[in-house]
Specification:
This protein is an alpha/beta fold. The protein is 50% helix and 9% strand. It contains 19 helices and ten strands. The strands form four sheets. Strands 3-4-5-7 form a four-stranded parallel beta sheet. Helix 4 links the parallel strand 3 and strand 4. The radius of gyration is 30 Å and the shape is elongated. About 7% of the residues have low confidence.
């Protein structure tokens, strides 16, 4: 699809009059004769060659057959194949299928033309290599190689441009293999489909820029802001939108002030749940899960997600399972298992798991904070790693003794009843702050 599109563009807008078009079936490929006729009517002389560019010998023979009267002056490599799947499902054969037309073909083109006086050497890469893309580990690797090859040629003083395209708005070629859920998933990532006229204009613009690797994509700023709020914005795009941060003040009985918390992460989710009753907390957690499920599957609202229905019945596959796991992990600030939806197969079961992982079960965790004993266990584990001859050991020992002394003084038996009431009313955060102050922790 893109090969034909850009062949027409090179003739119509760049004035190219001699084209050598390569594909596995050459002139016998569907639509090949029609494309040649169309280009001929536009004033171009077209030669088809049945050549697998990943076959070095076949490519060398094809290039050697180019007539001296019309020498090779530019290369545009547009080939690509998809075979998507999560990493654990990728076999050597599936990896080779995707890497061969990208990696092998591009390297052979590089080797066989590097001594020629080329005006352009253009590689069609993909944004999947720049940003990563769920279920496209093999495709991302293949395109990252193209980007690296362009940089390598550029450093050697050879012409090279790798264009890491985003999704094209075309029903043909690789884009035509994507179903509605695939397109929805890509759009949620902040990448809108690129119309053909915009893509052609970006191709021409790239020819005027010195960079070896460019990323021509169409971004959806609203989707990027949503990604930022969910804590899922790719690092390369963080300069385009601001990650929202809100401040929250806890005005409970102790009067302790809460610090700034980002919209994503365990702090904000736990804080959001801390003032709720057990019933309200469970309902809110379930709504968080249903909201992310709706976003991943493209449902209109969270209300469309049946909380008791299995994730597989709702329409999840391996790719959307990874997406949900990443979203919930970012929202809760937790490292969640890859088998998440299989271990907890319904939204209700998953909400219960998140409640446990956030430390919200029981009275000790009702305020959304981990138990004090758990924090002391962590401190004990850290202290166990300090060697007996560590130079900081005496200072740490002194700090711990001072902390224990202050703790005993604050809760002395002279006013045990009042002090007991004070301790009972203190929040875990206040106790942690005391530990931080005394131990010199940030």
């Amino acid at each position: 699809a893109l090969g034909g599109l850009f062949a027409r563009h090179l003739v119509a807008r760049r004035g190219v009059r001699h084209l050598l078009l390569l594909s596995r079936r050459g002139g016998d490929a569907p639509g090949a004769a029609e494309l040649a006729a169309e280009l001929g009517e536009m004033g171009a002389e077209v030669t088809w060659a049945a050549c697998d560019t990943a076959d070095r010998d076949a490519l060398a023979a094809t290039l050697q057959a180019i007539p001296a009267a019309h020498p090779l002056t530019a290369v545009v490599h547009t080939a690509g194949v998809l075979d998507d799947g999560v990493i654990s499902s990728l076999t050597g054969e599936r990896i080779d299928t995707v890497l061969r037309p990208k990696v092998d073909a591009a390297w052979h083109l590089h080797e066989l033309t590097r001594d020629l006086d080329l005006a352009a050497f253009v590689l069609f890469s993909s944004a999947a290599g720049a940003f990563g893309s769920s279920g496209q580990g093999n495709y991302a690797a293949a395109n990252t190689f193209l980007d690296a090859l362009a940089a390598h040629r550029h450093a050697a003083g050879l012409p090279a441009t790798s264009l890491a395209w985003g999704l094209w708005a075309t029903a043909d070629g690789m884009a035509g293999s994507l179903d509605t859920s695939d397109v929805t998933r890509i759009s949620r990532g902040g990448f809108a489909a690129l119309p053909q006229d915009e893509g052609l204009a970006l191709f021409d613009l790239a020819d005027t820029l010195p960079e070896a690797v460019l990323v021509p994509i169409r971004v959806d700023m609203g989707a990027l802001r949503g990604q930022a709020a969910a804590g899922l914005l790719p690092p390369l795009l963080r300069g385009l939108v601001r990650t929202p941060v809100r401040r929250s003040a806890d005005t409970g009985a102790t009067g302790a002030a809460a610090g700034a918390v980002a919209d994503s992460g365990a702090g904000s989710l736990a804080t959001r749940l801390s003032g709720l009753s057990e019933t309200e907390r469970d309902r809110e957690l379930l709504e968080v899960v249903r909201a992310h499920v709706a976003a991943v599957l493209g449902y209109a609202t969270p209300d469309d997600v049946d909380a008791g229905r299995g994730f597989l019945d709702l329409g999840f596959d391996s790719l959307t399972a990874v997406d949900l796991r990443n979203r919930l992990g970012a929202a809760a600030g937790l490292r969640l298992p890859v088998t998440l939806i299989f271990d907890y197969p319904t939204p209700t079961a998953l909400a219960g798991y998140l409640r446990e992982e956030l430390g919200l079960d029981g009275a000790a965790g009702a305020a959304g904070h981990p138990p004090v004993h758990a924090e002391l266990d962590k401190l004990e584990a850290i202290l166990a790693t300090i060697a007996p001859d560590d130079l900081e050991r005496p200072a740490i020992t002194t700090r711990l003794r001072d902390l224990l002394s202050k703790w005993n003084e604050t809760h002395s038996a002279t006013d045990s009843t009042a002090q007991d009431r004070e301790i009972q009313s203190a929040t875990a955060d206040e106790i942690f702050d005391l530990l931080d102050d005394e131990l010199g922790l940030s």
